[in-house]
Specification:
This protein is of the alpha/beta class and 319 residues long. It is built from 13 helices and 8 strands.
Length: 319
């Protein structure tokens, strides 16, 4: 065993995943594995955990009550697990992930050389389009020489406690509720009247945690695959894509960027929602002009990526 804790939130709806994924979490050389469940946990969920843990005495179930101050309950559940852990080195992920031994590399790095978080990559196996996304992500990682930040990572608790912005974390909305964008939404009413209005764009609790950590400590994203996600990931769900479109619009991303992202990740709702935002904000003619410029923008960006991959020093263009 190694001196680290595993923290995994498990909701009442996740009981069917437990037989498939819990044994792999327990196969890791952790000193303890904490499953954070809602309080009170149902007998059905507890029985699924008991049956598939096979008497492993490293397993600990922590029941977490609802906390009215938190908008996104899972963010509170995960953080309760962090505080309950025996060790300062913590590996966290979700119960829909089948993990592998690559995660041990992340545990060995946190807490050293000013590193607060080490993130690992995930692949998906929930449908046909996942094959396309897995492939495009590998290509993009290779071309950009960058790894994605995912929800599978190790952290060093003292650094997290020092940098955590708990008040902001409490305000994080549920990623899949109130996500669809409609003409009558306050956001579009605000755009039409020339002001920015609610709803705010979604920013995940893991992303907020990472941004807070970066103010003082290092965050490392490893290229290794640390697990396989067996359920449709949140980023691919239509409600989340719509909220992401709002965030990317406010971040100043162009139609060319959104189009490329939508094609590469097979996210049609992202493109349609962003287009709706552009039309509402700037009008149909502006949108059509941007549409006509798409091919040139994508060609120039692709050329830059190819040259940089070949080692040619060219200025990086943004879509």
């Amino acid at each position: 065993m190694m001196d680290f804790s595993v923290v995994v939130p498990v909701s009442e709806n996740d009981a069917a995943l437990v037989p498939r994924t819990l044994p792999r979490w327990l196969a890791l050389p952790a000193d303890e594995v904490i499953l954070c469940v809602d309080k009170p946990a149902s007998q059905h969920l507890i029985e699924a955990i008991r049956k598939n843990s096979r008497g492993d005495d490293r397993l600990r179930v922590v029941e977490v009550p609802r906390e009215s101050g938190w908008m996104f309950h899972q963010a509170f559940v995960r953080r309760t697990g962090f505080k309950s852990a025996k060790f300062d080195k913590i590996l966290t992920g979700d119960i829909d992930v089948i993990v592998n031994e690559n995660v041990v590399a992340a545990i060995r790095m946190v807490g050293k050389d000013n590193i607060g978080i080490v993130n690992l990559q995930k692949e998906m196996r929930s449908g046909f389009f996942d094959v396309v996304q897995n492939s495009t992500r590998r290509v993009i990682r290779a071309l950009k020489k960058e790894a994605y930040f995912t929800g599978l990572y190790a952290l060093y608790r003292p650094y997290w406690l020092e940098t955590e912005d708990e008040e902001s974390a409490k305000k994080i909305p549920h990623p899949l509720r109130h996500g669809a964008l409609q003409r009558e939404d306050d956001f579009f009413v605000g755009l039409a009247s020339g002001r920015e209005a609610t709803p705010p764009p979604y920013l995940g609790d893991d992303t907020m945690l990472k941004r807070a950590m970066l103010k003082k400590y290092r965050v490392v994203s490893l290229p290794q695959i640390g697990g396989v996600e067996v359920r449709t990931e949140t980023d691919n769900r239509p409600a989340f894509q719509a909220r992401q479109a709002v965030r990317l619009f406010r971040d100043g991303r162009t139609l060319a960027y959104i189009t490329a992202k939508s094609i590469l990740y097979v996210r049609g709702t992202l493109l349609s929602a962003y287009s709706q935002v552009l039309i509402t904000k700037f009008g149909t003619w502006f949108f059509l002009r941007e549409l006509l410029m798409l091919p040139l923008s994508i060609i120039l960006f692709s050329e830059t990526l190819a040259l940089r991959a070949l080692g040619v020093p060219v200025k990086r263009r943004r879509l």
